[in-house]
C-alpha cells in the first residue's frame, strides 16, 4: 500500500521539480554546485524561499556571462524550520550531491550546525539569512562567511538611534532560540553602556504561539518606554498587530524591531507598522541598482520585494563563484577553505553590497541602514514603505574581531 504524502511534502517536492537546477554546460570539469537551504513554505518563506533561490540563480547567471567556461548548478532544499532536517539535507548534499557551497539558511541554530559541518567536509557555507553574531565570533571558522547583518549590527544601528532620542528603558519580546538570544544580548550591552536599563525579557517558543497577549501584557506592565521585538517572520507580524490591539503605541510606548524587512511591513500594513525603527543592509528602493535587481526577481516572486537576506544570497553566491574561479575550479571543488580564503582576499564588487571586503573572521564589512516605517499618508507608490533615516559604517556596525573571541588569524 502506498504511503500517504503530506501536503507540505508534496508542495516541497513539486517546488523542487519545477525549479530545476540552473545549468551552464561546458566540457571538462563537472559543475560548481550551490545548494540553497531555505524556508520554502513556513514563517520565513517571504524572507527566504523562492526569492532566495531565484537570487542565487541570478548570481549563477551573471557569473556565467563572465566565465561561460565554468559550469554552475543551483539546487534547493526546504529544511522546514527544523535544524535536524536541515543538517541532514546539508550532510547529504556534501556527501552525495557534490554540493560545494550552501547558501541562505535563515535560522541561527541551523547555521551554527552547518558551519561546523562545512569545516568537517571542507566545503563552504554562505550565510545571509542568519542573525547570530557568534558565526564570526566564538564559532568563526575557515569554511564559512557571514553576509548582510548580524545581531551586533542590528543592535548598533537601532539601539543607538533610539537611545539618541532619550528612550532609555527597554523590554524585549524574544524568540527563544539562538537569534533571539543574540539580539537581546548585544542590544542589552549597548543599552547598558549608554546608561539605559532593560526592565525585562519575555521569551516565546519558536515558531510562536500565535497569541502573544501574555508577553505583551508583561511588556506593558513593565513601564518600559521601548518594546523591542527580537523575533522575525510571522511571529513579528503577529506581535506588532497585537501590540496595536493592546494600545501600546497609542499609550506612548515606542515599538521597534531589530530584524524587520519590507515583506513583514507589507504583511502588517503601514497603519500597524508606522513609525517603527528597524535596521537593514539592503532596501529594494534605495537606488537604481537595487531597483534593477528587484525587477529581475519580480517575475518569480509574484511582486514580492526582496528582503536583505535575498540580496545577501545573491551577493555572497556571486562572490563565491568569482573566488572559486580565481582559486581554480579543480581546487575549489575539493578545498572549500581555499575558496573562502580567496573570498577574503578579493574585493566584493557587486552593485548591491560592493565595494566591500570580507574580514579575516568571515564577516562581510557592509554598511547598515537605519529605517523608519512611513505613515500611510507618506506612501508615494506600492511598496514605498520606509525612509532611510541613517547609515552606520561597517566599522561601527560590526563587532571588532579582537572582541569577538574568533581564533582565526587577523
From TrEMBL:
<keyword id="KW-0813">Transport</keyword>
<dbReference type="InterPro" id="IPR006311">
    <property type="entry name" value="TAT_signal"/>
</dbReference>
<feature type="signal peptide">
    <location>
        <begin position="1"/>
        <end position="26"/>
    </location>
</feature>
<keyword id="KW-0029">Amino-acid transport</keyword>
<dbReference type="InterPro" id="IPR051010">
    <property type="entry name" value="BCAA_transport"/>
</dbReference>
<dbReference type="InterPro" id="IPR028081">
    <property type="entry name" value="Leu-bd"/>
</dbReference>
<protein>
    <submittedName>
        <fullName>ABC transporter substrate-binding protein</fullName>
    </submittedName>
</protein>
<dbReference type="Pfam" id="PF13458">
    <property type="entry name" value="Peripla_BP_6"/>
</dbReference>
<keyword id="KW-0732">Signal</keyword>
<feature type="domain" description="Leucine-binding protein">
    <location>
        <begin position="31"/>
        <end position="374"/>
    </location>
</feature>
<dbReference type="InterPro" id="IPR028082">
    <property type="entry name" value="Peripla_BP_I"/>
</dbReference>
<comment type="similarity">
    <text>Belongs to the leucine-binding protein family.</text>
</comment>
